[in-house]
Amino acid sequence: MADSVTKETFAFLKELENNNNRDWFNAHKTEFNAHQDETKMFFNLVLEDLNKHDQIEKMKMFRIYRDVRFSKDKSPYKTQFACSFSRAGVERRGGRFICLKPGETFIAAGFWAPNKDDLLRIRKELELDASEFRKVIGDNVFKGIWGELEGEAVKTAPKGFDKEHPDIDLIRQKQFIFVRSFSDKEVLSKGFAGQVDDSFRAITPYFDLMSSILTTNLNGESLIG
Known about the structure:
44% helix; alpha+beta; 5-stranded antiparallel β-sheet
C-alpha cells in the first residue's frame, strides 16, 4: 500500500484544474477513478496508523463534485482529494482532516464547528482558567509541528463575556483548529503517511484536554455518566 501520493495523481489534479468542465472529466473518468482508488488506499493507510493510537469511528472521503448552487464559481469539480476522520465515542472529541492538492496540501485537527453548548462550555472553561490550555498549545514540540491556534473568532467579545478579560483572545474563538501545510516534495516522497501520522499523534494532548473539558462541567464532574 502506497505511503505517499503519486506524481501521476497530482498531475491529474493539475489537469483537472485547467480543464474543469464536464466534457473533459467524462472523457477522463476512468483515469479519475484509478487516481481516486489509489488515494483512498493512502487514506486507509492513514486510518490504519491512527487506530494504533486512537479510536476512529468513521473515515469519510469527500466526493469530487462541487455543490455550485450558492456559489459564484460554477466549476463542477473540486481540484483536490480530501478526507476526514471522526473519533469514536462520546468521550473522544475532535476531528482530523487531510486535503491533498498540488501546491496547497494541508492537514488540520481540532474543532471546526462546535455546537452552541460545546462552544459555551469551552469559553466558560477559558474564562475560569486558561492556563492549562495555554500550556498545551504553547508546548515547544507541539508548536513546532502545529504552529498557532487558528479559526474564526468574534470581533470583540461573545455575549456575556468581559472584553477586558486577560484571555479574551482565546474566548473570542468560534473555531479551535490547527493546520499544518506540506510541500509537494513532501507529499510525493516515500513515508509521507508517516509524517501525517506523526502530526496527528502529536495533537493528542490537545484532544485529551478538550475532551476532558467537553465531558465535564465547571466543577469537573462527568457529564457522560
